[in-house]
Amino acid sequence: MNINPNIKRTNKDESVLFADVCGIIDNARRRVAVHANSEVCLVKWYVGKRIKEDVLYNQRAEYGKQIVKNLAQKLTKKYGNGWGYQSLKHCIHAANTFTEDEIGYAVRIQFSWTHIRTIMFIDDPLARQFYMEMCRIEHWDTRTLDAKIDSRIPYRADSMQ
Asked: Rounded distance, CA 86 to CA 88, Å?
């Protein structure tokens, strides 16, 4: 058997080429996912801010709940189930909880909307900051974050100073 050495080299070259192209595609997909996630977080915060301004600042709190329900029905019809009443309540809560700078920081450190939704229900601002920093430093996914909050990992106010 006389095997041509050029054939083996071609197969190896093709394997390297395939691996390189896969790497390019995978990296692009990751960048798109990060960008899409950032936009989801920002859109939801801005939607909450806009609703909050219209319903609360314009003294419409009395019938604001109905306005939000009506808006949710229209948005769901146009954009799908991700814009239901409960989702809009989360958007409003996020806008009430985080400043524009804080939501920008959360996006920069690549938090998902689920991270934000979890952290926004922590009442103590210092504890919220603590969990945000721990997520950033230790790269917690949302399950880990939930578990740490549920187990009430040692959190002391003086540890944040």
From this structure: 5
Report yes or no: 113 and 41 within 8 Å, Cβ to Cβ. yes
Q: Which tokens is 64 given?
A: 């604001």
**How far is residue 67 from each of residues 21, 47, 54, measured CA to CA in Å?**
50, 14, 10
Q: What is the per-residue pLDDT for 3?
A: 59
* Burial environment of residue 41 by CB neighbours within 10 A (0 to 12, 13 to 18, 19 or more): buried
> What are the two backbone dihedrals, phi and then psi, of residue 88, each rounded to the nearest 5 degrees?
-65, -35
32-42 pLDDT tens trace: 998 999 999 99
**What are the tens digits of pLDDT across the range 139-161?**
999 999 999 998 876 555 444 44
Show the DSSP H helices in 53-84 as ranges. Answer: 61-79
